[in-house]
Amino acid sequence: MRSDIRVCSDWQTTHERPVYTLGDRCPVCDAPAENSAPAPFDPTDRYGEYRRRARSDGPE
C-alpha cells in the first residue's frame, strides 16, 4: 500500500509528535519525509498461519 501522506523520518528525536506532510521534506526541520503507510500484507508469509493461530482466542 502506498500513501500520499508522509511523515518526518526524524520525528522521534526532533519533534514531540509525528509531523505529517504531502511533500518530500519535513516542513518544520527540513528532514526527509518517508511513507506513513504500514507494511503490506504478504500472502506468501510461511509463518502467518502459526501467528494467527497463536493470536486466536480458542482452539480451532
Automatic annotation (TrEMBL):
Alphabetized SUPFAM superfamilies for the sequence: Nop10-like SnoRNP (SSF144210)
Example of a GO cellular component annotation carried by this entry: ribonucleoprotein complex
UniProt keyword Ribonucleoprotein present: yes
Domain of life: Archaea
A GO BP annotation: pseudouridine synthesis
UniProt keyword list: Ribonucleoprotein, Ribosome biogenesis, rRNA processing
Composition skew (Basic and acidic residues), residue ranges: 43-60
GO molecular function: snoRNA binding
Stretch list, region Disordered: 31-60
Pfam family, one: Nop10p
Record function comment: Involved in ribosome biogenesis; more specifically in 18S rRNA pseudouridylation and in cleavage of pre-rRNA.
Similarity section: Belongs to the NOP10 family.
Protein name according to UniProt: Ribosome biogenesis protein Nop10
Natural source organism: Halorubrum aquaticum
Lineage of the species this protein comes from: Archaea, Methanobacteriati, Methanobacteriota, Stenosarchaea group, Halobacteria
